[in-house]
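Example (one chain per record):
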Amino acid sequence: MIDHADDLASVQAATERLLHAVGALDNAAVTQSSRLPGWTRGHVLTHLARNADALVNVFEGRPMYASAEARDADIEAGAARPLDEQLADVRESAERLRAAAAVPADWSRTVELRNGVTDRAERVPFRRWIEVELHHVDLGIGYALEDLPADFTEREIGFLAARFSGHADVPATTLSSTDGRTWTTGGGAGGGPVTVEGTPADLLGWLAGRRDGGALTVKGGDLPKLPPL
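Predicted structure:
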C-alpha cells in the first residue's frame, strides 16, 4: 500500500543525506566525471534540482518539462556552477517540491509525467525518492547500491520488475534475491523461463542499468538484455 506522506519523509531524509555528502566536496570535485557517461557531478546535481522543479509542475498541472531540448539545455547550463550554488539549488528546489506536495489535493488523481507517461499522484513521491537515491550513487562519492535503505531497494526492484513485465524484448524471468524475496518480470519475448539470482543490490543495479549483471547467477538461459529506462 502506498503512503505518500511516508514517501515524502523518505525523500527529505534521502535529500539531506545527499546534501551532507556533497557538502564535503570542493569545486574541483563537482566538475569531475560522475558514474553516468558524459555527465559530471555538476550535471547530476543540476538534474536533481531541475527534476524537483519539474515535479512541482506535475503537481500543479503543468507539463513536466517545456520540452526535451529545454530539459537538456537547463542541465547543461547549470553543470559548471561552483559547489555552493549547486548545493543551494538542490536544497531550494527540494523545498519548493516539499511545499507543492503539502498543498491539499486529491492524491488518487492521475498526473502526466515525461514522455506522456501517466501515474497516480500518490506515486510521485516514490519516483522522486528513486531520483535522489540512485543519483546519489551516480555521483561516485562513496554511496553505493549496498548503502541504499533496504525498504527502498525492495520497492525499486518491484517497481522495475513491473516496468519490464510483458516487455516484448524480455523473456519470462524470475528474480530471486539472496534474502528470499522473488519477483517476476518480462514474458513478452520467447525463451525462458529464466531465473536470475543475486543480492538485492546486484539485482537492483542490473535492473536500473547501474551494473552489468556479472555478479548474478542465471539459470534456464542467458541473462536477459534489458531495454533502456
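Caption: The first strand starts at residue 110 and ends at 112.
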